[in-house]
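Running this now, will post back.
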Amino acid sequence: MNKVIYISWIPITARIARDWNFDCLVDAKLPVEYWNASVLLFGCGGSKSSERPNSHTLSNYQELESLLCMPENKKAIYMVLASCGPRTARLYRILSKCSCRMFYITWNTIPPVQKTNILKRAFSQSGSFLVSVYGRMLISSYKMLGLIKKYEVVFAAGKILEASDYYAQKVVPINMIDYDHVLRERMNPTRPLVLGNYVVFLDQNLTAHPDLEFSGIRPLSKEAYFQAMEKYFKRIEDQYKTQVVIASHPTANGDDASYGGRKTFKDCTCNLIKYSECVITHYSNSISYAVIFNKPLVLVYTNEMIALHKARMVDYIFRLARALKTSAVNVDEVSVGALSTIPNPDVEAYRDYVYNYLTNTVSEHTETSDIFLKEIQQGFAIGF
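Update: finished.
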């Protein structure tokens, strides 16, 4: 039977169903299921799926193999929402052993590490660097031995990703999901949610994001983090006679008390950035909105981020700052006078970023859902 089965490291949510094209398939009346593999990948730390129709939480790898071998699942397209790495190696090996047709979607707004910095990172973070190298070598050996098969199709956003080696039979150009949101916003403009001038901060829930555990990253201290951000926001508000509003991360609990009672909004980041005067964040993927709408952008970090995650969080921030030719500010060290150095957008750097990471000349006028649906339908025809 032709159908699409999502296998993901997290339970399905309305946002995942929308952004990863699950809803697109449902609307097209194509058979689609969602298998939550978080228990397999995290053990007792995994989460059960909601009661959404066609979603199921896998209990163990034996159940997974049993389901894969069922006749109605033999010809399915498996959309894997988990990158191939040491934690997911067993999942990929089972999918490969069962000759599953694996599809994958990837987008990434973090510019690559400069070659001159690789050796420096190896010495400064020797433990984590060696673990990372071991993980890549392990996956490479599985691929060389044929224990992990190639993706049948990889959907990739931007010129940088299209040029990468994704161990795939076919790479299909798409847009970063935020780029698609802007396409819709331009066709059906929304009214501003906030009246008057304001600066928007793109929250990343760095004190409690579930991705942190998956990536092996220690959460930031709530007390230290929110104190540092509150101090910086107040300086911004006092110097520029404006207000800072918060674009809350989808995984945050929505409590605006953490940010000093400032106005907090969820699931409307595109609107908030479109009408803002300036955007502040760490390394949120949603900076793509700031780039597309040509907004001044300030990337910030804290002393704790340097102490705990210099090779990850802070490194990401400086890579973005270099690519976009903007400021990277330590909010724990900034003086009041330094706040006046918010840079104007660099038009050329912003344009390069759009085509390197967000879209391409093939898909820039087409929504990803249309490209995705066409490719799935072609996949059904091939697999019949």
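The chain has a mean pLDDT of 88. More later if anyone needs it.
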